[in-house]
TrEMBL record:
<dbReference type="InterPro" id="IPR020596">
    <property type="entry name" value="rRNA_Ade_Mease_Trfase_CS"/>
</dbReference>
<feature type="binding site">
    <location>
        <position position="85"/>
    </location>
    <ligand>
        <name>S-adenosyl-L-methionine</name>
    </ligand>
</feature>
<dbReference type="InterPro" id="IPR001737">
    <property type="entry name" value="KsgA/Erm"/>
</dbReference>
<protein>
    <recommendedName>
        <fullName>Ribosomal RNA small subunit methyltransferase A</fullName>
        <ecNumber>2.1.1.182</ecNumber>
    </recommendedName>
</protein>
<comment type="function">
    <text>Specifically dimethylates two adjacent adenosines (A1518 and A1519) in the loop of a conserved hairpin near the 3'-end of 16S rRNA in the 30S particle. May play a critical role in biogenesis of 30S subunits.</text>
</comment>
<dbReference type="GO" id="GO:0052908">
    <property type="term" value="F:16S rRNA (adenine(1518)-N(6)/adenine(1519)-N(6))-dimethyltransferase activity"/>
</dbReference>
<dbReference type="GO" id="GO:0005829">
    <property type="term" value="C:cytosol"/>
</dbReference>
<dbReference type="InterPro" id="IPR029063">
    <property type="entry name" value="SAM-dependent_MTases_sf"/>
</dbReference>
<keyword id="KW-0963">Cytoplasm</keyword>
<keyword id="KW-0694">RNA-binding</keyword>
<dbReference type="InterPro" id="IPR023165">
    <property type="entry name" value="rRNA_Ade_diMease-like_C"/>
</dbReference>
<keyword id="KW-0489">Methyltransferase</keyword>
<dbReference type="Pfam" id="PF00398">
    <property type="entry name" value="RrnaAD"/>
</dbReference>
<keyword id="KW-0808">Transferase</keyword>
<feature type="binding site">
    <location>
        <position position="115"/>
    </location>
    <ligand>
        <name>S-adenosyl-L-methionine</name>
    </ligand>
</feature>
<feature type="binding site">
    <location>
        <position position="64"/>
    </location>
    <ligand>
        <name>S-adenosyl-L-methionine</name>
    </ligand>
</feature>
<dbReference type="InterPro" id="IPR020598">
    <property type="entry name" value="rRNA_Ade_methylase_Trfase_N"/>
</dbReference>
Amino acid sequence: MTAPEPSPAPQPLLGATEIRRLAEEIGVRPTKTLGQNFVIDGNTIRRIVAAAKVDPTETVLEVGPGLGSLTLGLLDAAARVVAVEIDPVLAAKLPSTVAAFRPALAGNLDVVLSDAMRVTELPAEPTALVANLPYNVAVPVVLHLLEHFPSLKHGLVMVQDEVADRMVAGPGSKTYGVPSVKGAWYSQMRKAGVIGMNVFWPAPKISSGLVEFTRREPPKTHASREEVFAVIDAAFAQRRKTLRAALAGWAGGAAQAETYLRQAGVDPSARGEVIDVIAYARIAEAKISATV
Ligand code: SAM
């Protein structure tokens, strides 16, 4: 009988000492403007990677690799990692960090120096988005990437905990808003956990939340995404008002808004916070079918 193969030793991840040393080497002082809070805890990285359910054949898009904490964990789990970083000093350092900590996997990394809110082309087609996102731009980044990269089928992002609650909220919930409805256009979003402040350097003042998403078909409608999103923006710009009042500007008058809402099967006295993305699509469609 042969002895069972010993399971491979876990690969080292970046802890507080390595992160501070790397930052010092390149003279980086984390900035709030770019949401630079680096993860200094290997267990948190393992937890994120496990929750992301990345398949070994996948190409993962990572936004904001920073000093590489999550990048190393993703390289262990995926076939390829495309890392989009806005900070030129961090982007330039990443390949050598990966070469030092994962020499065998260094060829599986592409670093793209770019603003993730503007990127429209990547060196490989990503199927998953996994990122510890810069907090001030987390929602627009996710929406931009879901719009421009239809190859993204699923993902897991770390954002401010209250933003995570907004992204996953359903109609009728206090936290339901534009991020929830627009996110639901592309995907099913689910909260996948809360992360404390002490696993970061520097430590933020608030907890972080994990949001897992799976892409799905958008609602079937003749209205375009832009047309549906215009209704959502108008409804939540005045979220305390009835839809009849909130959509008056968009429809060309309150009476017109009421006509579209009735045609869409939506109560004109309801508020935008109680209807789902399918109802928003029906409202947008009511307007375009009246004008064709
Ligand atoms: N992934 C690293 C980690 O977990 O330690 C760093 C995460 S840190 C919260 C956010 C990272 O996003 C920083 O490296 C920052 O420079 C980068 N960043 C900020 N705004 C960005 C943008 N618009 N596009 C791409 N990267 C951005």
